[in-house]
Design a protein that fits this description.
Blueprint: E1 7-11, H1 16-27, E2 31-36, H2 39-47, E3 52-55, H3 61-75, E4 80-83, H4 99-127, E5 130-135, H5 148-168, E6 173-180, H6 188-192, H7 198-205, H8 216-227, E7 238-241
Parallel strand pairs: 1-2, 1-4, 2-3, 4-5, 5-6, 6-7
Helix pairs in contact: 1-8, 3-4, 4-5
């Protein structure tokens, strides 16, 4: 098993990409802790494989610290963190996005990584290394109209992952970013800005050379590789899981 003996913390793990990542890590031998605002959902996923769950808000430093402490207690260390929790405003003109929506975007998509870094990096330094994976997006590489402020948060995640990788390399902490293309998750209709119908999906799929949206397992597989020892010399990458969308 590729993650045997490792301890992992996955935020936003109650559904979508996060649930697939948590299940895949557990299948490969990791002791997994899930953090999610949906505490019941997190507990349900964790119960599938004997994992640990923490109900918490990634925008609050205290909740992040509690999740890190819970992961260390459950797994005996903190080898892997996946910053997966994310949010988007509905696709609409940039001037129609409210200040509250803008603040929520940056709190969930960017500030959460600030909080996680302050809580997790000291633990990883103390144990001699670790892996952090941030879920960015192709939106930060080839942005779609109507999502300007969301795109900017993912541009920040893509770039901060590279900067973190350089700064933390002497501590043997690898930092990488996974950049999915649009996928069939709970946020799909918000990204599209139109009803989720087969006809409307086809318009988005037409922009993806491999002819489909991303699936949660696609993202989980990428995270598995980057978290594993097979990727021990990989840091600072933005790994596009996009069916060719950003080519």
């Amino acid at each position: 098993m590729r993650l045997a003996g490792k301890s992992a913390l996955v935020t936003g793990g109650a559904s979508g990409f996060g649930a697939a990542i948590a299940r895949t890590f557990a299948r490969e031998g990791a002791k997994v802790t899930i953090m999610d605002l949906n505490g019941q959902g997190a507990a349900a996923i964790a119960s599938e494989f004997g994992g640990h769950s923490v109900a918490g808000d990634v925008t609050k430093s205290g909740d992040i610290s509690a999740a890190v402490e819970g992961a260390v207690a459950h797994g005996g260390a903190l080898d892997i963190v996946v910053n997966n929790a994310g949010w988007t405003h509905r696709n609409k003109p940039m001037l129609d996005v409210t200040e509250a929506e803008f603040d929520r975007l940056y709190d969930i998509n960017v500030r959460s990584i600030f909080h996680m870094s302050r809580a997790a990096v000291p633990v990883m330094r103390g144990q001699g290394g670790g892996v952090m994976i941030n879920i960015g997006s192709t939106a930060g590489i080839r942005p779609r109209p109507g999502l300007t402020w969301y795109n900017s948060t993912k541009g920040a995640v893509n770039l901060l992952s590279k900067s973190m990788a350089v700064e933390l390399a002497p501590d043997r902490i690898r930092v990488n970013c996974v950049a999915p293309v649009i996928g069939a998750t709970a946020l799909l209709e918000s990204f599209m800005g139109i009803p989720d119908t087969p006809e409307n999906r086809a318009k988005f799929i037409a922009t993806i050379p491999l002819g489909r949206m991303s699936e949660p397992q696609d993202i989980a597989n990428a995270c598995l590789y980057l978290a594993s020892d097979e990727a021990e010399f990989i840091t600072g990458t933005v790994f596009e899981v996009d069916g060719g969308r950003t080519v």
